[in-house]
Amino acid sequence: MYSSMLSSANTMGHVQNRLDGISHNLANSDRTGYKRRETTFSDMLFQQVNNQPVPQNGAGRLTPEGLRVGTGAAAAQTALRLDQGSLKETNRELDFALTDKDVFFQVESAANGEEEIQYTRDGSFYLSENDEAEDGWTLVNNQGDYVVNAAGERMDVPAGARDFTLLEDGTVEAVLENGENVEVGQIELAEVTKPQLLEAAEGNNFQFPDLAELDLGLADVVEFVPGEENVVVQGALEQSNVDIAQAMTDMIHSQRHYSFNARAISQGDQMMGLVNSVRG
């Protein structure tokens, strides 16, 4: 009886983790480029009990011999799902959508107190005033992180630039007030070869953990590719890959799973109280 209550209590804690993950996915279902996470479960330690020592007495049995007395289920993994989200046309010149599920835009973020490269699928970019120049802008994402070009530098834009165009090789070009074409920079994408190492960072960005602790280098987890026309679509944004109907179904199943385990604890407590009263 006690082991059954312990199993249910262990499982409830991990089911709550799954509910938290589903809630987070639903809360971000409208966020551009958001990638959902899914929790999978595995059995915790269990014991095989041989309750039929005489094989002849088990003739005609349809179920496996013995009983498995376990201690519940545990969350085995919270996996990042990089399925492609649908594209939404915006016709805005500085909106870019990715059509390859394994690539990310590179941005320079200072959210952790120091400048570092992070990765995002959100291609809604804006012009921010350039503090290092008297007259000009810098291309940033909607969090204010600087977009990085193929040279690893920020993409500066001369003042008065307009009519931004994405060329076939991923170069962003603009037109100055005098009609002259100017190159803003070439978009370079990061193709992540080990996506499950990615951790959520500030806002809608991702980052890698300390790769040195994992005995890995950046070349082991990322390959850099140009943002060519067949991979980057101008005037569109990628929507989140959260299936709201499926997420709601998973939430209902998880809530029922949680409720059943809570009921098992309640009934076990009642039975133990009954036993104690009989003993008295």
UniProtKB/TrEMBL annotation:
What range(s) does the Flagellar basal-body/hook protein C-terminal domain occupy?
Answer: 233-276
Q: Where is the Flagellar hook protein FlgE/F/G-like D1 domain?
A: 104-174
The protein's matches in Pfam families, at most eight in alphabetical order, are given as: Flg_bbr_C (PF06429), LlgE_F_G_D1 (PF22692)
- List the record's Gene Ontology CC terms alphabetically: bacterial-type flagellum basal body
Q: Which UniProt keywords apply?
A: Bacterial flagellum, Cell projection, Cilium, Flagellum
Gene Ontology terms describing biological process:
bacterial-type flagellum-dependent swarming motility
| InterPro entries for the chain | Flagellar_FlgE/F/G, Flg_bb/hook_C_dom, FlgE/F/G-like, LlgE_F_G-like_D1
Its localization reads: Bacterial flagellum basal body
Q: What is its main location?
A: other
Does the keyword Hydrolase belong to this entry?
A: no
UniProt lists the family membership as follows: Belongs to the flagella basal body rod proteins family.
Q: Which NCBIfam families match?
A: FlgEFG_subfam
Tell me the protein's name.
Answer: Flagellar basal-body rod protein FlgG
Kindly list the organism's lineage.
Bacteria, Bacillati, Bacillota, Bacilli, Bacillales
